[in-house]
Amino acid sequence: MENLQKDNLLKYFTEYASKEGSTTELSVAGLKSLLQNQFAQYLKDSSSVDTVIKSLDKDKDGNISFDEFVTIIKKITSTEA
Question: HSE (CB half, 13 Å, CA atoms) of 55?
């Protein structure tokens, strides 16, 4: 995660969340769009992304907070082969 600093992550998160009318939460669909557009090099396949999202949506509300987003990014970037 060398150049994926928290400021950059916040920028991406806010940009995509604001498209949905929020700055604090991102829908699962919005998260998938963000990941596919900004972090495609880290994605193995869509089913692994779904699994990661489901396991890290801590409150199971279908929305992703910034903290959950950071955890997801750490998980997908640390499992890169």
Answer: 10
CB 78 within 8 A of CB 44: no
Residues in the chain: 81
Cβ–Cβ contacts within 10 Å for residue 53, how many? Answer: 19
> Which of 13, 55, 18, 60 is CA-nearest to residue 37?
13
Dig out the tokens for 51 from the structure: 């699994």
| AA identity, residue 78 | S
Structure tokens at 20: 């949905």
- Neighbour tally for 57: CB within 10 Å: 17
pLDDT tens digits for 14-72? 999 999 999 899 998 899 899 888 888 887 766 677 777 777 777 777 889 998 899 88
Cα separation of 30 and 36, whole Å?
Answer: 10
